[in-house]
Specification:
DNA binding, HTH_TetR, mainly alpha, Homeodomain-like_sf, single chain, Arc Repressor Mutant, subunit A, DNA-binding, 0% strand, 2 domains, TetR/AcrR family transcriptional regulator
Length: 211
Amino acid sequence: MPKAVKSSSKIRNPVQNRSIERKERLIEAAYQLVKLKGYSETGIRDIVDAANVSIGTFYAYYKDKYDIAFEILKKYGEETYGQLAEGVISFLPNDAKLSEIVYRMLLQLKKSATKNQKLHKEFFLLSLTDKKFGEVVRENEHIRIQIEFQKLITYFKEGKKIKNDPISLILVQRVIDDITTYATFSNLGDKEEKLIAETSIMVANYLYKEK
């Protein structure tokens, strides 16, 4: 099974409990602020004030705001993908059609993106303009979707009929992510339901193994 989300920056790892707790407070404060205000509107001073630590503590672990952005990305990935399979499994019977499974996945991802629009939009744009950040985003999303797909394949009867090789999952992950982002920011109105439903059918048809 793939390992957990990877970070690209050289982040100091604290070993003492007190240091670990301070770093976790910094990450949580940064994450909540970026969700609320957006990445561009969140400053280092905002983060340390919310975490109730000194500015020196921040620089003990991070070079700048960009450095901690990778930690925020990791938490967002955990929140977005971490309960994806469980949410689908709790909603559908194990004999559900593959298109229904994909449809439920898209709805959950769309809900998360809508809930965190500022973070999602700014990190999406940053992934397009910053090569290193974009590489980490794509790798982390791919790892997460592999983990969640394996859970779904194991639970649903349809699982034994579908492709689960890395290339197929990369293609599916890109389609799902792009449609989620498009649906979140395009104000489609009543066309959104049709877009998600037809994407679900398309992805399901692609995933079925050839007989």
